[in-house]
Amino acid sequence: xxxxxxxxxxxxxxxxxxxxxxxxxxxxxxxxxxxxxxxxxxxxxxxxxxxxxxxxxx
Length: 58
Known about the structure:
By secondary structure, the protein is mostly helical. The chain has helices at 3-19, 22-30, 37-57. The protein has three helices and no strands. The chain is globular, with a radius of gyration of 12 Å.
């Protein structure tokens, strides 16, 4: 994926994230196999930041 495709993808995903409860997002990420605790924490932080950004638009 190039940068343009990634940005287009994020614009599609952000509204979906805004609709999900924070707890559900965290639970789903915590159930991803093969991730270290550090990777999980960073991924959760990044996803929740996108969620908050989208919620701020509303």
